[in-house]
Amino acid sequence: xxxxxxxxxxxxxxxxxxxxxxxxxxxxxxxxxxxxxxxxxxxxxxxxxxxxxxxxxxxxxxxxxxxxxxxxxxxxxxxxxxxxxxxxxxxxxxxxxxxxxxxxx
Length: 105
Fold this sequence. Notes:
By secondary structure, the protein is α/β, with parallel strands linked by helices.
């Protein structure tokens, strides 16, 4: 069974809910998933087979804590399968979907 570390940043809790949903879905598919809030990480990525990083977009950027985590563990993260996801409420605004696609795709 593959061990996955899912590290997330959250501002208001919504991204944590998404992280928990992703972890639950992966567990149902047979993966061993550990959730870790980037504000108080308890697990080192070197102990896992794959890493998932998730963040909300805040003021047009990733949360600084997640950027710091990625920088701190850059060597490990570049040697393992790495998946990134972000949540952005902007897509729900008028013209928001097009704005997000123009900046992030």
